[in-house]
Amino acid sequence: MTENVLEIKDISVDFITDSGRLKAVRHASFNVPKGKIIGLVGESGCGKSTLASVLIRLMSDNAVVSGESILFEGENLLDLAPEDMRALRGNKMTMIFQDPMTALNPVLTIGTQMTDIQHRSRASKLQKREIAVDMLKKVGIPDPKDRLNQYPHEFSGGMRQRICIAMALLSRPSLIIADEPTTALDVTLEAQIVHLLKDLQEEMGCSIICVSHHLGMIAELCHGVVVMYAGELIEQGTVQDIFHRAAHPYTQRLLECDPANIRCRSKNLPTIEGEIPNLVLLPKGCIFQDRCHKRIDLCTQREPDPTFIGPGHWASCHLLNQGENHV
User: Fold this and answer.
1) What are phi and psi of 55, to 5 degrees?
2) Measured between alpha carbons, how far is 168 from 172 in angstroms, rounded to an integer?
């Protein structure tokens, strides 16, 4: 039996647009071990949510997915018929969507939505409601039995997110994809959701892909980290590798821009100068070259290959083959 619940091999995603073929994700490869939480980080627009949507196959009509394979529990998702993918989605693989304020149907009670999502179960309606009550209790919703009769607008943002997490866990999936699960929440609720996800993951033994640009949450929640920039995976390692031994200049700058790392009082937040390149007309060489303060001539000539740094830790940067020390 494989030790990975998910193995992504050389996956690319293009979008057919009026301006041309937009190369949103290019040659992505990484694994998600069983019972682990992997963080997918990077700036907005770098392809994190697109890659997450490919895994669960919820893509727009103009998307073109290519590559070797997406192996989920040994089965290639790229080969599955639509009906087979529907049977898997929401069952063995579930998703916590980005905005809890819009993820729930406003005209149906929470109880109706939580029983409807169990449509594959042969349990009676009463049993499904009991399962829903138990799951709401697990995520910290008070008076869960009475709450089943209420509508989404009667809950706060934090409670709605807890409900979304409960719905994702109802089928006891092998893999949960959490797409920016704390985006709409304040700092206090964010910390609660992070600890809740961590506790539930340990209790149920499932794997989680956590998509986020919030580095503090990733450091608290995840076991491993994959760093994306402009559609490419540029560095991967454990949380300790990425946060204490970052090798790629982009990862280093990303960490420097984290408000938690600011040591001196300032009126301005640190930023990475420049913008993400045009993904329709990709530049030659390293994708980060225009914004990199350590750029060398080779960066403009060809793409860097992944460089092994340590067990499970690699980065794609020419400097690593030039004898440069990383921090």
Assistant:
1) -65, -35
2) 8
- In angstroms, how far is the first alpha carbon of the chain from the final one? 37
Owner of token pair 């400097």: 319
pLDDT band at residue 101, thresholds of 50, 70 and 90? confident
Query: Could you tell me how many residues make up the chain?
Result: 327
Q: Architecture of domain 4-92+171-321 in CATH?
A: 3-Layer(aba) Sandwich (3.40)
Task: Name the phi and psi angles at 206, rounded to 5.
Answer: -80, 170
Q: What is the pTM of this model?
A: 0.91
Render pLDDT for 177-207 as a digit per residue (tens, 0 to 9): 999 887 767 777 778 888 888 988 998 899 9
Would you list the domain boundaries of the chain?
A: 4-92+171-321
Both tokens assigned to 28? 């992505």
Instruction: Please give, one letter per residue, the 3-state secondary structure of the chain.
Output: CCCEEEEEEEEEEEEEECCEEEEEEEEEEEEEECCCEEEEECCCCCCHHHHHHHHHCCCCCCEEEECCEEEECCEEHHHCCHHHHHHHECCCEEEECCCHHHHCCCCCCHHHHHHHCCCCCCCCHHHHHHHHHHHHHHCCCCCHHHHCCCCHHHCCHHHHHHHHHHHHHCCCCCEEEEECCCCCCCHHHHHHHHHHHHHHHHHHCCEEEEECCCHHHHHHHCCEEEEEECCEEEEEEEHHHHHHCCCCHHHHHHHHCCHHHCCCCCCCCCCCCCCCCCCCCCCCCCCCHHHCCCCCHHHHCCCCCEEEEECCEEEECHHHHCCCCCC
Instruction: Name the residue among 185, 189, 197, 187 with its Cα closest to residue 96.
Output: 197
Q: What is the pLDDT of residues 211-232, one digit of tens each?
A: 998 888 899 999 999 999 999 9
Q: Are 238 and 310 in contact (CB under 8 A)?
A: no
